[in-house]
Amino acid sequence: MLRINQRTLTIRLSEMRDAQQIMALDTVVWDDYSSPEPLNWTSREDFLRHCHPGSQLVALVDEQLCGYVGFRYPTMIRTNHHVYEINIAVHPQYQHEGIGTRLMDMVKAWASEQGMKKLSLRVLSSNAAALKFYEKCGFVIEGRLVNEFHVNGRYVDDVLMGYFF
After folding, report:
1. 94 exposure class (CB count in 10 Å sphere: 0-12, 13-18, 19+)
2. Where in the numbering of this chain does the N-acetyltransferase domain appear (predicted)?
3. How confident is the model at residue 2 (pLDDT cuts 50, 70, 90)?
4. Are 54 and 13 in contact (CB under 8 A)?
5. Predicted confidence (pLDDT) at residue 3 exceeds the cutoff of 70
6. Residues in contact with 147: Cβ distance below 8 Å, sequence separation at least 6, in sequence order
7. CB of 121 within 8 A of CB of 139?
8. What's the CA gap between 102 and 133, in Å, rounded?
């Protein structure tokens, strides 16, 4: 547990009981600015099919879920299982308090303990704040899919980033 602005920050593996709060966070965080399209789960079962307990590290401030970093193999190909693809979300009310950085530090440590050699992620080129954050966390741009998405009337690139152990 860590202290953040007189509050207690806990980061742990996700559990079944976190599903509803993660789903609610997804509707707030994943919009046209941060994702090619908003993320809206059709049901709790739909969410759990894609995001099973233990596939995220969740951040809680005084027991309120305020962020997570999800991790999974990028493909089902066994020769690709030295890589975790990650996605991170922090509720806007809790951003700029160091929670995202702490989540990134924790997922790096978790992945290293699991024998991973690389973390990968994708981010829209229009999301300058996220690109800067990922670079601050040690990620490098590995590639760019030019004009991959048409969002809000304009084309944006899909930027591929990696972190190597």
Report:
1. buried
2. 9-165
3. low
4. yes
5. no
6. 155, 156, 157
7. yes
8. 12
Write the pLDDT tens digit of every residue in 120-132: 999 999 999 999 9
φ and ψ of 153, to 5 deg? 80, 5
Tokens for 42, please give them.
Answer: 């059709």
Rounded Cα–Cα distance for residues 160 and 141 (Å): 6
> Could you identify the residue written with the tokens 């972190």?
163
Residue spans of beta strands (DSSP E) within 6-139: 7-13, 56-61, 64-72, 83-90, 118-124
Sketch the domain layout of the chain as residue ranges: 2-164
Label residue 54 left, alpha or beta by phi (over 0 means left) and psi (-120 to 50 means alpha). Answer: left
Average pLDDT of every residue of the chain: 94
Distances (CA, A) of 145 to 28, 35, 74, 142, 157: 26, 14, 17, 10, 5
